[in-house]
């Protein structure tokens, strides 16, 4: 009898440590993000969520442990090579060039202008308000509109793995819902895997297949999304 082989996860972290100066912020953290799923990472302020995303991307050095993308170690792989391999990042802050136009901010996601027209069209289908405003400077968009542009730019190259940092912060409920729909559509259309750091529980409950709570640099709890998830997550996040 042949044994069934488990599918290779899109991303796996094994006993990863990273941090700043003498302090480890991420502390022997292990987690697995399955292919094609939306994985929500939650946790109180300062627990290391952004640091974890930056460690995956190589912006913060991994001190020990192992990170695999499609089963292959990404130790020493530059952020630029990861982007070329289909990884995209929608950061929490300082993400846009305020004095560049929306078109030029979107263009920055690409290696060449060959994909520009098609990419802008795809982003404008998700966020139609951008269509009439592509020549406007990004800095003239409202905070919420800028968040949509940040996500749009991360989607320009139809990423295989999308890392998102608190995209819903400060957004009105209808925009949060739109973002949720966009993420679900991208996953269905392109088999995109999403790792999202998120504080908005309704968004997480609406889109995520799995969730984890980060506490002091480690996974404190994790589960597939089910009927008990809401209460469990709330218990972790209460002050
Ligand atoms: N560049 C840095 N140098 C030193 N310490 C840092 C740096 N960046 C973050 N930290 C510290 O690392 C810890 C984790 O920060 P991080 O931004 O990863 O947390 P977080 O869970 O994303 O928080 P939040 O929910 O508030 O965004 C915090 O104590 C923070 O002050």
TrEMBL record:
A Pfam family per the record: ABC_tran
PROSITE patterns recorded: ABC_TRANSPORTER_1, ABC_TRANSPORTER_2
Keyword Phosphoprotein: no
SMART domains reported for this sequence: AAA
InterPro entries given in the database record: AAA+_ATPase, ABC_transporter-like_ATP-bd, ABC_transporter-like_CS, BCAA_Transport_ATP-bd_LivF, P-loop_NTPase
Superkingdom of origin organism: Bacteria
Residue span, ABC transporter domain: 11-239
A molecular-function term among this protein's GO annotations: ATP binding
Keywords recorded for this protein, A-Z: Amino-acid transport, ATP-binding, Nucleotide-binding, Transport
Family per record: Belongs to the ABC transporter superfamily.
PANTHER family in the record: HIGH-AFFINITY BRANCHED-CHAIN AMINO ACID TRANSPORT ATP-BINDING PROTEIN LIVF
Protein name per its UniProtKB record: ABC transporter ATP-binding protein
């Amino acid at each position: 009898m042949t044994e069934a082989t488990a599918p290779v996860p899109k991303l796996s972290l094994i006993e990863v440590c990273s941090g700043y100066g003498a302090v480890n912020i991420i502390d022997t953290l292990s987690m697995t993000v399955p292919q094609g799923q939306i994985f929500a990472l939650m946790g109180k302020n300062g627990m290391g969520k952004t640091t974890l995303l930056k460690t995956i991307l190589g912006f913060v050095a991994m001190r020990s442990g192992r990170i695999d993308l499609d089963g292959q170690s990404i130790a020493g792989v530059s952020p630029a090579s990861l982007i070329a391999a289909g990884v995209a990042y929608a950061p929490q802050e300082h993400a846009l060039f305020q004095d560049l136009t929306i078109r030029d901010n979107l263009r920055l996601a690409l290696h060449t202008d060959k994909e520009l027209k098609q990419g802008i069209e795809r982003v404008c289908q998700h966020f139609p308000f951008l269509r009439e405003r592509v020549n406007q400077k990004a800095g003239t968009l409202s905070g919420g509109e800028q968040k949509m542009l940040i996500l749009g730019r991360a989607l320009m190259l139809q990423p295989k793995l999308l890392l998102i940092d608190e995209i819903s912060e400060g957004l009105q409920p209808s925009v949060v819902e739109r973002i949720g729909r966009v993420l679900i559509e991208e996953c269905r259309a392109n088999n995109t895997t999403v790792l999202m750091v998120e504080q908005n529980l309704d968004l997480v409950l609406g889109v995520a297949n799995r969730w984890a709570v980060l506490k002091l640099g480690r996974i404190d709890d994790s589960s597939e999304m089910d009927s008990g998830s809401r209460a469990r997550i709330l218990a972790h996040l209460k002050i």
